[in-house]
């Protein structure tokens, strides 16, 4: 069988430690082309990952008739790059946040449907076995109509978002560019875009919702150019309420282990998913109680999982897509409203029709 032909647009720090190693380690993949800024960095990537084409022009990736393309460029470029990749005939993995604006996200969903290609979003936690087990349990037996949901996340991003250093596990050679993370024109914001997109992606995978209203406080200590901490209240389209909190932890806390928890209460039961403590608990009004037995480190994220899922989709396993474009668009809607609220100092109401 011929190999899956792959390319990466935006082969920066994250792609260098996650996506490119995942592709290289598969016997059924050939990395044909990569794109990023900087001749020396491109030359290094070309040698390390045995890439045929290394260019600063993303169209040199798009034009190679590839099976799969990963878009890991700055968020403000995601729509342009992912749209071109989809239209080239490739299945696409777009890093989070999918885009900065909800309109652009839904446009990518539309394009993917038109060209009959799969669009995946880089919500790494969604591809973990622990999360998939929880998802399957909720498919078998849900908690009914949602009444309340809380989402909490804390990760070591203080240095990154304050322009004082990289994040844990960042490539030491392909160093994160500060403008990608801390220039709002490129990133769309701080901790919300960089990390809470993951929390929303996990929560809405398990309990699909659409945000109707949001009120947000955001803070930027350490003279950070973007927010380090978020406190957001939501009203969902069905009338349920929810909270989303996020904090930039100190480097070294919990040995840099990510904290991510989703708790939801419905009229027929409730659940708790805590990746930090490896807990997946379900309770139902009929008295059923399920506390899943999980192995140690079940909540540790697999950074290679999203790229592997993209390849598996190209090989015909559509069930491998556990973070489809529609999910990405819902998270962008939620974050867009939160940033609107923080900027205006009042409740932001969704303008999407037929919520």
Secondary structure topology:
Layout: E1 4-9, H1 13-24, E2 29-35, H2 39-48, E3 53-55, H3 59-62, E4 68-71, H4 78-87, E5 91-94, H5 102-115, E6 119-121, H6 129-140, E7 146-155, H7 158-161, H8 178-182, H9 184-187, H10 191-206, E8 211-219, E9 229-236, E10 241-248, E11 259-266, E12 269-274, E13 279-284, E14 289-291, H11 305-314, H12 325-344, E15 348-349
Parallel strand pairs: 1-2, 1-4, 2-3, 4-5, 5-6, 7-10
Antiparallel strand pairs: 7-11, 8-9, 8-15, 9-10, 11-12, 12-13, 13-14
Helix pairs in contact: 1-11, 4-5, 5-12, 10-12
Would you report the number of β strands?
15
Chain-averaged pLDDT: 95
Main beta sheet strand tally, sense and closure: 9 strands, mixed
Which CATH architecture of the largest domain?
2-Layer Sandwich
* Name of the CATH class of the largest domain: Alpha Beta
pLDDT < 50 runs, ≥5 residues: none
Overall geometry comes to globular
How would you describe this structure to a colleague?
This protein folds into 2 domains: about 5-125, Rossmann fold; about 130-300 and about 325-350, Dihydrodipicolinate Reductase, domain 2 (2-Layer Sandwich). The chain has helices at about 15-25, 40-50, 60, 80-85, 100-115, 130-140, 160, 180, 185, 190-205, 305-315, 325-345, and strands spanning about 5-10, 30-35, 55, 70, 90-95, 120, 145-155, 210-220, 230-235, 240-250, 260-265, 270-275, 280-285, 290, 350. By secondary structure, it is an alpha/beta fold. It is about 35% helix and about 25% strand. The strands form 2 sheets. It has a 9-stranded mixed sheet, covered by helices on one side. It is built from 12 helices and 15 strands. It is globular and about 55 Å long. Helix 4 (about 80-85) links the parallel strand 4 (about 70) and strand 5 (about 90-95). It comes from Candidatus Planktophila versatilis. This is Dehydrogenase. InterPro entries: Gfo/Idh/MocA-like_OxRdtase_N, Gfo/Idh/MocA_Oxidoreductases, NAD(P)-bd_dom_sf.
